[in-house]
Amino acid sequence: MGTFKDNVNIIQHLTLRRVWNLMLLQISYTLSRITKKSILFGLPFTVSIEPTTACNLACPECPSGLKQFSRPTGKIDLKVNQDLMKTLGKQLFYINYYFQGEPFLHPQFLELIREAKKHKIYTATSTNAHFLNPQKADEIVNSGLDRLIISIDGLTQKTYESYRVNGKLSQVIAGAKLMVEAKKRAKSSTPHLIFQFLVVKPNEHEIPEVFELANELGIDEVRLKSAQIYNFEKGNRLIPENEKYSRYKRKADGTYQLKYPTGNHCWRMWSSCVITWDANIVPCCFDKDASYVLGSAVKEDFTRIWKSPKYQAFRLAILTGRNQIDICRNCSEGSKVWV
Predict the structure, then answer these.
(1) Average pLDDT, the chain
(2) Who's near 37: CB < 8 A, 6+ residues apart?
(3) Rounded to an integer, what distance in angstroms lies between the CA atom of residue 290 and that of residue 100?
(4) Beta 272-275 vs 280-282: how paired, if at all?
(5) CA–CA separation, 131 vs 167, rounded Å?
(6) What is the CA radius of gyration of the chain?
(7) Segment 39-98, tens digit of pLDDT
């Protein structure tokens, strides 16, 4: 029932202008793949906006948790978010207020949500749930946030902290309970609560239990996510035994390769982008260190950046030699992230 309500909510955020913009993007993407030329109509249908790069955990495959960024740590300015909403609000349908870092470490995070909701945009975020208290839970519900993904990557402290280093499973479960209670108090169907279970070798045996826990607590949905592993070729302690839950497959010689081969295409380059906390525009969520900055939303008009020769050249590179771009070599485009 919860998933049905979320789907209805999603549909209610569609407008004729947004549907038309999506059609333009699909047409231009199709033409680009056929002609091998970068053709672009419309503006992004979805974006990811990074509230902050700061994080309280030290997850082994996350540059934010490992503090391995070459780019600075900081938090997005509210004015930058306001300006983006004014530029993109009419065409933009969905914002994921998440890239790297823990969103609720931004002291004014919910102000970002409220601003987007003024423009009737569907909003989502992802959290490790360590900063959810009774007051914050009520504030989240009242902000209008449409979707809250709660990362719960283990059902015992031992399995949980094997990936979520420095985290406490008890705090995640307590935070999830607070969100369910806050929704009930407000008689609200939002935010749609998702338990995201990142499947890795230490926790793959606990998959049935996460569904049981979600049902017990009143969580709306459970999603199993395959893990991105940086150095996967020679194997990694996190790669699941069951290949169903992995993005990689083992070859006869014992090394690993991507399960699904990448091709010279990427819908993300036509439909969406990522905006870092300091307003840099990067191609997608695989550019975690912002190596391919295509423009600055505080120095340039977003529409000009989106259609600029530099951005078009990057799209053309995707169409003609995607495997030559380092951030694309371990990409999930065309594969099954959710399993």
Answers:
(1) 94
(2) 31, 316, 319
(3) 11
(4) antiparallel
(5) 11
(6) 20
(7) 999 999 999 999 999 999 999 888 766 667 788 899 999 999 999 999 999 999 999 999
